[in-house]
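Attaching the record inline, Q. Sequence:
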Amino acid sequence: MFKKFLMMLMMAAVVSFAFTGCGDKKTSSVDTSDSEVQDSAEVEDTEGGEEEQAPQGEAASDGSTMDMTGVATGDFPDFDQTREPKAGDTIVTFDVKDFGEIKALLFPEVAPYGVKNFTLHAKEGYYDGLTFHRIISDFMIQGGDPDGNGTGGESIWKTPFFNETAPQACVIRGSLCYANAGYDPSNGSQFFITQIDKCTDEDIKMYEDKGLQLTDEQKEIYKKNGGAAWLQGGYTVFGQVYEGMDIVDDISKVQTDDSDKPVEDVIINKVTVSEFK
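Structure, as predicted:
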């Protein structure tokens, strides 16, 4: 239990965004900087309160622009995160060298800007040849940084964008999420796939004792699917792996150094966007 608590603190700083200068590695968040995934105490609640002025950025290469006013949060009661893809859905395939393919269903209804950013990057080959530069077994694998060290990357609009959150979109096992710096806006190009496979009543109580607030529905989702419940509300969930979680598990087992960087590069050969048939 105590070990799990320490891991939770460490993870929240891991998922934080690198180029925003978010922190130090063992702090517990999912970082696009050279930090980790920040814990629930460090995750800003993006589901309430006033938003900052929405960033505009530049027009993307396809001419699209960004105006996230009123789009950063939402409630989607009919959203089914773990459903199988159906004909016409947008999917992405990660071809990982020496490991195999990971396939994820994207959620444009929940995260329109996040999906737009990821798919255009992928179509333009932005992710091809990059690495999963931070890997923490029983937590997540993180990639999408052209610098390969957690400090690089940017959105298609050349500026960070806000989280897009929904109560029904959870950071469960297999979720495809943006890494950020623990504040809004700080999403760019870095992403992570959640690998942790359990979330028990004991875990949830521990997170709640630390200040996390989950609905009964969210608790059931996490208990059923596993995942990083302490990150709820602080990260954009824009897709879900439906095939290849065994590949994610295999990647999570590679040897890493003290900064959670693989000793041998885990290379993403190509990310392909397609329509599910």
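The beta strands are 90-96, 100-106, 132-136, 140-143, 175-178, 191-194, 237-243, 268-275. The radius of gyration is 17 Å.

More tomorrow.
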